[in-house]
């Protein structure tokens, strides 16, 4: 704080012309006097000044009394008073006398200032503790809400996993029912229809089985899945006289659940076709199954070294059920493309784009 804030505007003024006695008398009543001559400031006088030196000497020594600049800090003025032993000092702005500051003024001010400061600190401490309590209550509330949300999420995950488990079990039940039905007929065509339907159902059951075992419910690791599917299809289409070697080349391609089921049905059909038709009249055969992903495009290939699809069958227009299902699924559900090569057997490649996740309210 600057000292001009404390400079006194009202004080008793004495003039040298009034005489030493009257000034001394005044000083008995007042703690200090300001001495002026013709309205101009000369000096400050305290009772101790008079005691220590004759009045005239005091007046003469005015130039030796320290002067305070109005911009000086309160603390530095107090320090000046301590050093010089003068406890009443004149304050000047430039060369103009603007008042007087006493040690008591400064001490009173400092006490008041400290009290103010303590009051402010106490108020702020109280405010901080109030805000702190509010924050603590909010944190407690959030922690409780978070715990509740986590518990609810866990519960939903368990439910979802349970649903996949049940779907898989129900599909297995349907598959067994088809088995029972197929046992009641000797008609090979009907038996083949039952087997076909059963293998499609099992194809879907394997997907749900993987989801049930997975940490995530929205995607399928195709590598693991294809291994399981091919093992299953090899059992279903087991042919006594033909030795079929499956070669599976799958990098870790992850496909969203919504695309995994159509993708699996296409694979089922293509691998089943190779197993059923490609190696007629042969002793051994090879089926290569691969799946790769580059950027967002998945490329899935089933290649056999069999007898090849007969010339008369056009994969893109054939009305037979299996190839129609492949076409409809690839073009209608996966929004993809089919390529076929007929050299040294049959190679069918399916390409489709991974669907972007739909973000709610996007
Ligand atoms: N990999 C293959 N090698 C040789 N021939 C094939 C191959 N894939 C398909 N074919 C021929 O194409 C025909 C049509 O196949 P498609 O899958 O549509 O019917 P399917 O397999 O005979 O019957 P479904 O699939 O309904 O059980 C087959 O009957 C077979 O002659
Ligand atoms: Mg078929």
**SS field, number of helical segments:** 9
| Topology as a string of helices (H) and strands (E) | EHEEHHEHEEHHEHEEHEEHEE
Mean pLDDT: 90
The top level CATH class name of the domain at 218-362: Alpha Beta
Shape: rod-shaped
* Superfamily (CATH H level) name of the domain at 218-362: Histidine kinase-like ATPase, C-terminal domain
Q: Tell me the β content.
A: 15-25%
Summary tags:
single chain, 362 residues, alpha/beta, Heat Shock Protein 90, 5-stranded mixed sheet, 9 helices, 13 strands, binds adenosine-5'-triphosphate, binds magnesium ion
In words, what does this structure look like?
By secondary structure, the protein is α/β, with parallel strands linked by helices. Among the domains are: 3-108, CBS-domain (Roll), CATH 3.10.580.10; 218-362, Histidine kinase-like ATPase, C-terminal domain (Heat Shock Protein 90). It is 52% helix and 20% strand. The chain contains nine helices and 13 strands. It has helices at 20-29, 47-52, 55-60, 74-84, 103-183, 188-213, 222-236, 257-278, 321-333; strands at 13-14, 33-37, 40-45, 68-69, 88-93, 96-102, 219-221, 243-250, 254-256, 284-294, 297-304, 337-341, 346-353. The strands form four sheets. It has a five-stranded mixed sheet with strand order 8-10-11-13-12, covered by helices on one side. Strand 1, helix 1 and strand 2 (33-37) form a beta-alpha-beta unit. The mean pLDDT is 90. The site of magnesium ion has 4 residues, from helix 8.
């Amino acid at each position: 704080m600057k000292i001009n804030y404390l400079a006194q505007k009202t004080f008793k003024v004495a003039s040298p012309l009034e005489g030493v006695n009257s000034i001394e008398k005044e000083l008995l009543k007042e703690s200090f006097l300001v001495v002026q001559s013709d309205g101009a400031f000369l000096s400050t006088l305290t009772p101790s000044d008079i005691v220590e030196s004759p009045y005239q000497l005091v007046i003469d020594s005015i130039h030796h009394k320290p002067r305070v600049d109005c911009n000086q800090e309160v603390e530095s003025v107090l320090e000046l008073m301590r050093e010089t032993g003068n406890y009443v000092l004149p304050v000047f702005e430039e060369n103009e006398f603007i008042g007087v500051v006493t040690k008591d003024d400064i001490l009173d001010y400092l006490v008041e200032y400290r009290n103010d400061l303590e009051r402010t600190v106490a108020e702020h401490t109280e405010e901080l503790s109030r805000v702190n309590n509010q924050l603590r209550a909010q944190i407690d509330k959030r922690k409780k809400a978070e715990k509740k949300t986590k518990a609810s999420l866990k519960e939903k995950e368990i439910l979802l996993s349970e649903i996949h488990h049940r779907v898989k079990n129900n599909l297995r039940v349907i598959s067994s029912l088809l088995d029972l039905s197929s046992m009641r007929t000797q008609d090979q065509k009907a038996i083949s229809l039952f087997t076909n339907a059963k293998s499609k159902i099992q194809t879907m059951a394997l997907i749900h089985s993987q989801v049930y075992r997975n940490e995530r419910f929205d995607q399928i690791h195709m590598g693991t899945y294809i291994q399981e599917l091919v093992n299953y299809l090899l059992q279903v289409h087991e042919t006594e006289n033909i030795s079929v070697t499956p070669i599976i080349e799958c990098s870790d391609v992850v496909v969203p659940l919504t695309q995994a089921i159509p993708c699996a049905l296409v694979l089922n059909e293509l691998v089943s076709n190779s197993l059923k038709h490609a190696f007629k009249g042969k002793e051994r055969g090879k089926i290569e199954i691969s799946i790769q992903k580059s950027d967002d495009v998945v490329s899935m290939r089933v290649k056999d070294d069999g007898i090849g699809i007969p010339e008369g069958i056009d994969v893109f227009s054939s009305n037979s059920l299996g190839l129609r299902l492949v076409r409809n699924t690839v073009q209608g559900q996966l929004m993809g493309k089919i390529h076929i090569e007929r050299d040294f057997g049959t190679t069918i490649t399916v390409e489709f784009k991974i669907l972007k996740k739909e973000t709610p309210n996007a």
